[in-house]
Amino acid sequence: MTTMKLPDFFDLIPKLRVQDPLARMLGSAEDGILEYGFGDAVRLTGHSCPTVAAAYWLTYLALEKLYPDSLPQRGGIKVELREDARSGSTGVVATVVQMLTGAGGSTGFKGIGGRFNRVGLIRYAPDLLLSMRFTRLDTRAAVEANADLWLAPPDPTIDTLLGRCVEERASREEQQQLAAVWQERIRHLLIDLARDPGVFVVRGVEQRWQRKVPPGLLLHPVNAITRAAHPR
Question: Are residues 145 and 201 in the same domain?
Fold first, then answer.
């Protein structure tokens, strides 16, 4: 039997620990504490790419900022996305975010006895300044988040290698080379640039009547994340 082996650097990426009241009540995890790693996002989506990496890491950073002194409460967070599911890879982003936060769309968990409802906690909000907004349901504290993947450009050989692999004309060596340079970009993003505020932006949201758009702010919706991740 072939065993699953993920890239070694996945083990170096911080894992997200959350507490899920539903999991605690049903005894699914002791005290409801669940732990997710980047490998879980890869298993969920079936691949490791810059879009999946950005979705995982922005969620990690957003929850870190929203819950500085306690575990994030899975199922207690509303998530808004600037682009809808039909745009670019927004659906992939939403899938990763839902796994980590418990926020569900129209098909989400409907709850038990009026509690633990997750339906409608992930939605699309075209008026967002950045790609995503995360809001705590208990305190209403919120942060917006965005990734600028152009600051970690792809290897110049990727276009050629990707084209040959997609067309099934690549040699085994070329297939291995594509995999290596592709995953090196993911490693660079999630290890070397993980705390670079120019690449991963997470900032608190002011009250609506106080919010002003800073002059010269560059906005990068989820669709821009996708285009930067997949330059072809």
Answer: yes
Q: How many other C-beta atoms are found inside a 10 Å radius of the C-beta of residue 1?
A: 2
Strand pairing class (33-36; 142-147): unpaired
User: Which residues, other chains included, contact 217 with Cβ-Cβ below 8 Å and sequence gap of 6+?
Assistant: 129
CB atoms within 10 A of CB 119: 14
Whole domain around residue 80: which residue ranges? 13-149+196-209+218-229
Tell me the pTM.
0.87
Per-residue pLDDT of the chain (232 residues; tens, 9 = 90+): 778 899 999 999 999 999 999 999 999 999 999 999 999 999 999 999 999 999 999 999 999 999 999 999 999 999 999 988 667 788 999 999 999 999 998 888 888 888 888 899 999 999 999 999 999 999 999 999 999 999 999 999 999 999 999 999 999 999 999 999 999 999 999 999 999 999 999 999 985 644 444 544 444 444 445 455 655 4
> Hey, which residues does 93 pair with through a beta bridge?
none
Domain match, 69 and 34 both: yes
Residue 16: CB atoms within 10 A of its CB come to: 25
Q: Do 17 and 78 belong to one domain? A: yes
Question: Do 142 and 159 fall into the same domain?
Answer: no
Residue 226: is it exposed, middle or buried by C-beta count within 10 angstroms (0-12/13-18/19+)? buried
Rounded Cα–Cα distance for residues 132 and 124 (Å): 9
Number of domains in the chain: 2
41 and 112 both lie in a single domain? yes
Q: Are strands 132-136 and 142-147 parallel, antiparallel or unpaired?
A: antiparallel
Given the DSSP bridges, would you call strands 77-81 and 33-36 parallel, antiparallel or unpaired? unpaired
